[in-house]
Amino acid sequence: MKKLIYVIVIFFICSCEDSERKKMAQVVSYWQSREIIFPKDTSFVSYSRKYNERKVHLQKGKYAILSYIDSTGCMSCKLELPKWSEFIYVVDSISNGSVPFVFVFQSNKKKDLIHFLKKTGFDYPVYIDEHSSFDRLNRFPKEMQLQTFLLDSNSHVTAIGNPIHNSNVKELYLSIIQGKEVVSNTKNKAIETKVKVDKASVFLGDFAWQKEQKTIFVLTNIGDKPLVIEDVNTSCGCVSVGYSKEPVPSGKDIKLEVGYKADNPEYFDKTITVFCNAKFSPIQLRITGNAR
């Protein structure tokens, strides 16, 4: 068990600063093998365009994936249902559909949330936690990236981390589900390079919320090996990122073209996470602003 905890820490937080790494390691260690407690009145429901509402009996399997998401604010940003649908498809394809997904959405606007689920056609088991009873029983981590769990057949935590935000966590989940040996994803030093970022954050100012905003981050390869962008994730579905998939030679740079389209007026603070073969990968970038 200690070896698995160590592997999860390496997969998930190998690039954090020392203080953050220590904090994350403590959280991961605390949750490893803990049992997720379900409230007595827990009833999972599937909402879709075809059915108004239907209760779902959760099948029992070797593994299950549970994600607790606070949907307060921009629902499409917080829930990121298209990304979850893609990941569910991948898991179903390797497990013959034997791994159930359980979504617990914390929201005090149940009607709005149900309308959103029907509109998007998200036909998976959902429990709407109007009174935070699920959270009170389990005291989930405050960090969004630590609110998803791979559970065993007895609802004990096997792994922790959000697979749609972190490609390393995604590979970890898939490896465990397939029964493969789990090894740390430390990079081969021979292909590691160094990266300089022109800026870590951009303030997009005040603007009309209907108007899309764009900015550019430049990553320069200052090492002696080619820079390879492995994946780019965003904290919100309203943020898009375009970039070249070609390796970046030493001394050259790559532009990340970032777009932000608000769903409604809001002050926003969004992150872009870049996974690459740089020493301190993943690299976190941020955009902020006020969509009026």
From TrEMBL:
Signal sequence segment: none
User: Taxonomically, which superkingdom?
Assistant: Bacteria
The protein in question is named DUF1573 domain-containing protein
- Organism, by scientific name, is Bacteroides cellulosilyticus DSM 14838
